Amino acid sequence: MDSTVLTTKEAIKKLVDKVTAIKIPENLSSKLDESFAQLEINSQNEETFWQNYHLVSKYIDWIVNIPWFNESKDILDLRDAKEKLDKEHYGLENIKERILEYISVISLQKSRNPDETVHAPVLLFVGLVGTGKTTIAKSIAQVLGRELIRIPFGGLGDPHYLRGHSRTRPDAEPGQIIKGLVHCKTRNPVILLDEIDRVADDALNTIMGVLVELLDPEQNNNFVDHYLDYPVDLSQVIFCATCNNTSRIATAVMDRLEVIQMPSYTDEEKIVIARDYLLPKALKATGLTVSDLQISPSLWAQIVRPLGFDAGVRTLQRNIEAMCRKVAKIILEGKSKQIVVDENNIKIFLPQW
Predict the structure, then answer these.
(1) pLDDT tens digits, residue range 138-185?
(2) 262 and 252 in contact (C-beta within 8 Å)?
(3) Do the Cβ atoms of 238 and 191 come closer than 8 Å?
(4) How is domain 78-261 classified at the CATH fold level?
(5) Which of 11, 160, 199, 330 could form a disulfide with 156 if both were Cys (CB 3.0 to 4.6 A apart)?
(6) How far apart are CA 210 and CA 220, in angstroms?
């Protein structure tokens, strides 16, 4: 219903019905009652009423969509978790073992102490570009069956991006933490704080201050977003973070992180990753099959190192995807039904310098 066809009394009832239709914290419900009472007072002046009504309505739309009590159920099957990790990641045995240990701890604590909150360690994956920091964090959400929220920190220059602006601003909204909870509809997702070392210089201290509050289990059960102006319990969230190096991360933040180094890949590891992980994914993404494109085994060493050493596999992934696109074009043009990439034609499919 549009405000132009509602009476002020009907408009207030509409908001009240929204709130009473869901379960929210009792203290917050009392706080909203005060807003409704103020609207009743403002109803004597329609222009003032509708201005305030739209602000309150926007606020309530956020309130009723926050998953105050809704949680997803964790998958705590070690065998299933190991299979998923091995399927997505080659090597990285120490890191996989750390994730399996954490799943074991959750399982034991939930079975023996179901009423206690399990405080997850905050894992900080440190490594060069392309070494799998973000994908291993995503896998944690996948093996636990939790939703994933990724918050990029690259170039971040405003702490309000994380914790919202005060409602005194007409364009105010919650920060990315609350928006993420609303989007995933559960209060226990995995939140990935990506590239926390790449925030803008002039905002480094204030953003690190917000991170301390987010990552400290003694504080994050009462995280206050400036827009909501009401504490939200983040104690059920699993936080992960990534960075290229730790030199710009505040000591207070580092104290709350468990550092896991992501090693650079050797050429031998890259060959396995390219052949068994990246190529099948690229074939599927481009509509090809294994019969459409075959690569001579002797070429893999050249494919994984076309130009010097690269710690990660991001460039390798792009080159394989580009190769698959070229093959798809050749097949669609009817020039060939099957492509075999070997020493004679590698220059056609692989970038040359």
Answers:
(1) 999 999 999 999 999 999 999 999 999 998 887 899 999 999 999 999
(2) no
(3) yes
(4) Rossmann fold (3.40.50)
(5) 199
(6) 10
Residue type, 168: T
CA 314 to chain centre: 19
Q: Are strands 339-341 and 293-295 parallel, antiparallel or unpaired?
A: parallel
Q: Which positions ≥6 away from 292 have C-beta within 8 Å? A: 283, 327, 331, 337, 338, 339
| Bridge partners (DSSP) listed for residue 231 | 224
Alpha helix stretches (DSSP H) within 239-278 = 251-254, 267-273
Nearest alpha carbon to residue 98 among 111, 112, 110, 81: 81
- Contact of 14 with 64, CB cutoff 8 Å: no
Model confidence, pTM: 0.84
Q: What is the 3-state secondary structure (H, E, C) of 333-345?
A: CCCCCCEEECCCC
- pLDDT less than 70: residues of the chain: 1-5, 306-309, 352-353
Structure tokens at 272: 């396995």
The CATH T-level fold of domain 267-349 is Helicase, Ruva Protein; domain 3 (1.10.8)
Task: Pick the closest to residue 49 from 15, 18, 12, 14 (CA basis).
Answer: 12
